[in-house]
């Protein structure tokens, strides 16, 4: 049995959009029967949070610097709903590539 994928969901203030995006990811993961664990935070704290939380990937609803150490997905489609299904496919496909979430 594999472990859940840890997703760090970040926005500008770690209040509204990161919570909305996390709930949407959790609901879609449940629908796809993929185990995930979401953590939330501010993009300004990205480096510290990535080191501390050790996520498998990041979903950011605000602008974030490109990173070499972790895969970062734009979470804007989770807020706007435009391109949301494609984003789900990308995120959960990546989780499967990592061999996580089962």
Strand-residue fraction? Answer: 15-25%
Distance between the termini: 6 Å
Domain count, please report it: 1
CATH topology: Rossmann fold
The assigned structural class equals: alpha/beta
Query: Mind describing the biggest β-sheet?
Result: 4 strands, parallel
Strand order of the largest sheet: 2-1-3-4
Structure description:
The chain has 102 residues and is an alpha/beta fold. The protein has one domain (5-97): 3-Layer(aba) Sandwich (Rossmann fold). Helices cover 43% and strands 21% of the residues. The chain contains four helices and four strands, in the order E-H-E-H-E-E-H-H. The protein has helices at residues 16-32, 46-53, 76-80, 84-97, and strands spanning 5-11, 36-42, 57-60, 72-74. It has a four-stranded parallel β-sheet, with helices on both faces. The model has no long low-confidence stretch (mean pLDDT 94).
Q: Which terms would index this structure?
A:
43% helix, 102 residues, four-stranded parallel beta sheet, alpha/beta, 4 strands
Summarize the topology.
Elements lengths: L4 E7 L4 H17 L3 E7 L3 H8 L3 E4 L11 E3 L1 H5 L3 H14 L5
Parallel strand pairs: 1-2, 1-3, 3-4
Compact overview of the structure:
With 102 residues, this protein is of the alpha/beta class. The chain has four helices and four strands, in the order E-H-E-H-E-E-H-H. It is globular.
């Amino acid at each position: 049995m594999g472990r859940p994928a840890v997703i760090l969901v970040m926005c500008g203030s770690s209040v509204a959009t990161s919570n909305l995006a996390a709930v949407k990811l959790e609901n879609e993961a449940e629908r796809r029967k993929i185990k995930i664990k979401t953590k939330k935070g501010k993009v300004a704290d990205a480096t510290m949070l990535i080191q501390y939380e050790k996520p498998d990937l990041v979903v950011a609803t605000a602008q974030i610097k490109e990173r070499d150490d972790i895969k970062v997905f734009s979470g804007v489609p989770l807020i706007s709903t435009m391109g949301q299904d494609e984003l789900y496919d990308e995120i959960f496909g990546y989780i499967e590539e990592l061999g996580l979430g089962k």
